[in-house]
Inverse folding.
């Protein structure tokens, strides 16, 4: 991982992963600015490139082809990636207000959040029309439209808005839908398509010859074009025009004039009459040196510019330079929009028509040129240069010299590494330790479990555990949630109810305001999870160190006769796992910029999911033994259970839920640093030569953070238990194997690649 070394002096927050911001990220990745921390807040972590959207709709590009993955790009830039939606900006307090997470403080903020089609002004449009933006909502809805066409339930597609985007999109849709219907044995020619233009002609603002070429294309393809057709309302079965005419249609696509984000007026920033954010020549919000913006969301004060991706792309380098110049106290440079851009508009087939400086030409060559330009653009954000080493050494060029003086006055103190110690090392190290024998200790080091159980004299027993580790994600709020969940897992695995928590936190040294912001975000995340668990945060201790770290000493309560032990596996029971595995390899891949952002975000969502309800469901279904799957990996924790229970176990590999991307990551040879220690437990696997060749074998050793519960339940109730777990939100919970009676074999674990459902059911019915 490459992060800007040293303490944070300035926080730059980029809101939206639009065309200009991806260039800013790349720019800061190429030339990091010591002391500056970037944070990208984006609604979608795969950000679409609209220039290739029509090509995707037409069937020429895959979804991956047209998206920039912000994960590796953010890593390259040393930026924190927060998947969330900004819903406001507190300009006075310098905070971005987000839909889900606590406000994100900034020293400088930049908005590149695009625009949205204006459905609000036309009654019924929001309910009945399909807007092209946000593109990520559009894509699945277009797939559903296509399915309706193929099923014969949609025969007439109408598109409102005859700008370049609308024209290109309708031609793409027509090409794809006629072709797919014909390929499915239907009559592609029977489909109807209509384009509605509110003005006198399509493609207003483009040269006459360009418009004429497209009119000819529409005529040749049998697409109706209605001009002067201003839509007054949209209904379930079509549209009503302002002049009262009705046009029936089965599906209505919507690409009318862009509208700005609806929260901009509450920011108090200067807006144009339509609500777009006014910026000066340097791309700064009028009167605010710490607020920048680019792309469709701006109204450029010096001159009107079209809302087109080309302009957002060209603004990127200027935006990056001006953010840098503001931070370093050097001169800003003006953004000079190009006088005339080359427009290449595709016609559905691999064919395009282009215009520049009033000249118009088209053909298959124009499509090839467009394809080449678009793919080259995408490559800039995919084929990132190898990351240089962490930026160390050079004096910070930041303008805020007072802050830099404060930083250098704080002594550098490094804390210990928070990495977990492997199972073998741990048991060897603790083997010689003889704790003082107290009769109140029911479960302690003599027979270690997920947590200690102590009789404190009350009606219930006390369950005690501690966990502590360094930040595994660069979002302190999420990390707080994950750390709390990870610690609580031990209490739930013992069948306990969390009662109190003491926190221990390490924060990297830095400016007071930055330390405070990170600490409060981390504790807010942790406390949200603790509150959900009914666990009171009663105190803690904080120190400075090299890395952000957090841990908890937890107390829980459990009925005297109801605590769960790892040694409670019963031959014949089914093994249930509540969450997918793979966080270790995915986080390792993320550190190296090799993981897709959507994989990492999904892993984070799983780590943020509490085990509370899973423990409740397992209790209802007669759980015999449970453990939380963490650092020793699925196999390591299962071996602990089989040893303590004196049983064997069978794991069915293709039943084990695996996080998306974990297999790809393992196939690339990316493993957590704890993996080699966990792999030592392979000695517990029977017929190792065969087992090692099985798919997913390495994932059995993958260390988990805030993993799910591995539990045994009576076989007859296992499928019902899994159904209840899924209903409770553990969508990937599964029966992953069985507990077997102890055999003569030295190795307790039997791995099988798969098992037909019938065999599986039979096994459940007949205990081994
Ligand atoms: C069908 C179609 C085809 C087009 N084809 C072309 C073309 O070929 N060439 C061209 O130049 N232009 C084209 N355009 C226009 C182009 O889409 C836009 O001008 C361009 O995308 C604007 O870029 P942007 O950087 O302003 O924002 P966008 O590209 O829209 O990016 C905005 C980003 O911000 C994120 N976001 C939005 N709101 C929030 C929020 N509140 N919080 C966090 N994140 C947020 C979004 O998820 C998105 O990632 C086309 C438009 C359409 C509709």
């Amino acid at each position: 991982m490459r992060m800007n070394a040293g303490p944070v002096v300035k926080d730059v927050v980029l809101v939206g992963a639009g065309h200009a911001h991806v260039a800013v990220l790349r720019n800061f990745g190429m030339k990091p600015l010591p002391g500056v921390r970037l944070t990208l807040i984006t609604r979608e972590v795969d950000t679409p490139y609209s220039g290739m959207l029509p090509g995707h709709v037409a069937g020429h590009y895959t979804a991956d082809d047209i998206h920039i993955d912000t994960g590796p790009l953010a890593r390259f830039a040393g930026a924190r990636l927060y998947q969330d939606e900004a819903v406001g900006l507190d300009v006075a307090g310098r905070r971005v207000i987000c839909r889900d997470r606590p406000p994100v403080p900034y020293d400088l903020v930049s908005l590149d959040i695009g625009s949205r089609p204006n459905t609000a002004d036309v009654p019924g449009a929001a309910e009945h029309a399909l807007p092209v933006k946000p593109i990520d909502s559009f894509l699945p809805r277009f797939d559903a439209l296509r399915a309706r066409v193929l099923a014969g339930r949609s025969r007439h597609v109408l598109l409102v808005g005859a700008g370049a985007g609308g024209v290109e999109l309708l031609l793409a849709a027509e090409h794809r839908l006629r072709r797919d219907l014909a390929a499915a044995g239907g009559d592609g020619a029977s489909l109807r398509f209509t384009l509605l233009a509110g003005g006198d002609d399509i493609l207003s603002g483009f040269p006459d010859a360009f418009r004429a070429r497209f009119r000819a294309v529409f005529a040749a393809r049998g697409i109706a074009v209605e001009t002067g057709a201003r839509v007054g309302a949209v209904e379930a079965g079509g549209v009503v025009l302002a002049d009262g005419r009705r046009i029936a249609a089965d599906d209505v696509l919507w690409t009318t004039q862009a509208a700005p984000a609806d929260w901009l007026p509450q920011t108090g920033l200067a807006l144009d009459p339509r609500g777009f954010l006014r910026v000066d020549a340097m791309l700064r919000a009028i009167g605010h040196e710490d607020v920048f913006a680019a792309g469709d969301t701006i109204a450029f004060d010096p001159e009107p510019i079209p809302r087109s991706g080309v302009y957002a792309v060209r603004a990127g380098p200027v935006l990056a330079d001006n953010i840098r110049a503001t931070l370093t106290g050097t001169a800003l440079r003006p953004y000079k929009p190009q006088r005339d851009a080359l427009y290449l508009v595709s016609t559905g087939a691999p064919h395009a028509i282009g215009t520049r400086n009033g000249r118009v030409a088209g053909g298959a060559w124009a499509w090839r040129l467009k394809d080449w330009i678009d793919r080259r653009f995408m490559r800039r954000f995919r084929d990132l240069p190898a990351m240089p080493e962490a930026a160390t050494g050079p004096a910070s060029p930041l303008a805020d010299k007072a802050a830099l003086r404060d930083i250098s006055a704080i002594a550098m103190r490094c804390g210990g590494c928070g990495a977990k110690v492997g199972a073998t090392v741990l048991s060897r190290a603790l083997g010689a330790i003889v704790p003082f024998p107290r009769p109140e200790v029911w479960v302690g080091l003599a027979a270690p479990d997920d947590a200690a159980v102590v009789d404190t004299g009350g009606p219930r027993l006390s369950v005690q555990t501690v966990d502590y580790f360094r930040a595994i994600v660069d979002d302190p709020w999420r990390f707080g949630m994950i750390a709390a969940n990870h610690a609580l897992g031990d209490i739930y695995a013992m069948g306990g109810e969390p009662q109190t928590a003491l926190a221990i936190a390490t924060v990297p040294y830095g400016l007071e305001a930055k330390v405070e912001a990170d600490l409060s975000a981390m504790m807010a995340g942790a406390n949200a999870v603790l509150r959900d668990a009914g666990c009171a945060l009663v105190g803690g201790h904080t120190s400075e160190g090299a890395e952000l770290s957090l841990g908890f000493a937890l107390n829980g309560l459990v009925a005297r006769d109801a605590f769960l032990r790892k040694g409670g596996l019963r031959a014949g029971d089914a093994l249930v796992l509540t969450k997918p595995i793979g966080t270790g390899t995915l986080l390792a891949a993320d550190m190296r910029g090799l993981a897709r952002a959507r994989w990492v975000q999904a892993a984070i969502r799983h780590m943020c999911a509490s085990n509370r309800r899973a423990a409740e469901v397992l209790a209802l279904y007669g759980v015999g033994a449970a453990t939380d799957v963490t650092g020793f990996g699925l196999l390591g924790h299962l071996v602990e259970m089989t040893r303590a229970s004196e049983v064997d176990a069978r794991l069915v590999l293709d039943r084990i839920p695996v996080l998306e991307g974990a297999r790809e990551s393992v196939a690339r040879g990316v493993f957590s640093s704890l993996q080699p220690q966990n792999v030592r437990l392979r000695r517990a696997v029977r017929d190792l030569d065969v087992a090692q060749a099985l798919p997913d074998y390495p994932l059995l050793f993958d260390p988990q953070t805030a993993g799910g519960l591995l539990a045994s339940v009576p076989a007859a109730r296992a499928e019902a238990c899994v159904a209840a777990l899924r209903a409770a939100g553990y969508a990937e919970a599964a029966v992953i194997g069985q507990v077997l009676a102890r055999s003569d074999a030295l190795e307790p674990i039997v791995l099988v690649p798969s098992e037909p459902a019938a065999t599986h059911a039979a096994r459940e019915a007949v205990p081994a």
